[in-house]
Amino acid sequence: MPRLLSVNGGVPRDVTWNGKTVRTSVWKSPVDGRRMVRRLNVQGDAQADLAGHAGEHRAVIVYQVDSYHYWERFSSRNNFCFRPIR
Fold first, then answer.
1. Residue 33 carries which DSSP code?
2. What is the pLDDT at residue 24?
3. Is position 75 within any domain?
4. Domain presence at residue 78
5. pTM surpassing 0.85?
6. Confidence of residue 5 (pLDDT cuts 50, 70, 90)
7. Cα distances (angstroms) measured from residue 16 to each of 13, 20, 26
8. Residue 53 buriedness (CB in 10 A; 0-12 / 13-18 / 19+)
9. For the segment 49-76, what is each residue's pLDDT rounded down to a tens digit?
10. In a domain, 13, yes or no
11. pLDDT tens across 25-50, in order?
C-alpha cells in the first residue's frame, strides 16, 4: 500500500555555478506539519524557473523512496534523507 513519507519544500536562492550566479530552488528540505496543496504550488515551496518547473500540471512531484536510494548509490552520497510525516 503506498504511503506518503515526506513533504519537502524550498525557496529560490542564488548560488555560484560554473563561475556564474544562478537562481535555483533545487534544494528542498522536509517540512513539519501539514501543507496546503494549491493549483499552482505547495504552501512554502517555490520555483526559480517558472517557465520550466511550474504550473498547474507541475505543482507536485512524487518520487518513490527507491529513487532516492538509487541516487544515493549513484552519487556515492548518503544525505538524500527525508523526515517521515507524523
1. S
2. 92
3. no
4. no
5. no
6. confident
7. 10, 5, 13
8. middle
9. 888 887 888 878 888 888 888 888 899 8
10. yes
11. 888 888 888 899 888 888 989 888 88
Q: How many helices (H) and strands (E) does the chain have?
A: 2, 4
- What single letter denotes the amino acid at residue 28? K
Reading the block at residue 53, the C-alpha cell is 518547473
CA atoms within 13 A on the CB side of 76: 0
> What is the rounded distance in angstroms from the CA atom of residue 43 to the CA atom of residue 60?
11
| Domain count within the chain | 1
User: How far is CA 46 from its chain centroid?
Assistant: 9
Nearest 10 degrees: Cα torsion 23, 56, 45, 47: 0
Q: Distance (Å, rounded) from C-alpha 68 to C-alpha 16?
A: 25
Range of the domain at 38: 8-60
Contact 61, 42 (CB under 8 A): no
Please report which residue ranges of 26-81 form alpha helices under DSSP H.
50-53, 65-75
